[in-house]
Request: fold
Amino acid sequence: MSDTSQGPGWWLASDGRWYAPDDRPGYVLAPPDPAYAYPQYSGYYQYPAPRPTNGLAIASLILSILWLIGLGSVLAVIFASVALSKIKASHGQQEGRGLALAGLIIGIVGLIGTVGFFLIVTTSASGINQATKEIPASKPPSVAPPRATKENTVNQLGVTVNVREPSATGFTKVLVQDVAYPVPEGVGTVAIASVRVCAGTGGSQSAASSQAIVMRFSGGHVPHSGPDAIPSLGSSACTDAELYFELPPGSRPTYVAYRQYRWMVPAH
Reply:
């Protein structure tokens, strides 16, 4: 109610005063606008259930970090690929895509690191082997061939033999130093045995029975040295001599012998 009109819809009553529109007799309140009506809620708000995280995605991330000399990286890549496929097929029912992607990326980086790691190890091993090959092996100190005793019957070249029970005209010590073959001689070839012999206190005489140094060849031929190949020796005297033996065609010397003693001739 007012003494003056306050706007559209206000009306003048018989008492000379202005009244609001809703004070007019017979006025009906208009229903509220549905656009501004407040929703009516009943009960409690239902929150959606949480979505599970894919287990393979979690395992992929853990294995990619562990590495395990490349094994973890391989499993991480496999698990991540399977997890991404399952998450996509779940249509939003599973989570963990970010974990799977992280495991996949770290796993791939781990695989690249594994290749580099094994390349470094292989290169280092090859370098060590090469260095080992280049280091010359230390040679054992040269040792003079052992002196032969009376009991030795088979010897290498360069070994002196003490003859057991030498004869009155024989040798007490015999050494076959070397054998050279084939050596051209006349119209054929020969094998030459370089020897050193020593007589006893009674000396030695030039005789086939006392010298009897022979050479055996691979074909079975066994020639003797000549009776004058070694001169007669005085008491306890020694001498060097070269004994010539005809070399049969296609054969080679196998050993030189004096009585029961032998000096083996290596093949060359």
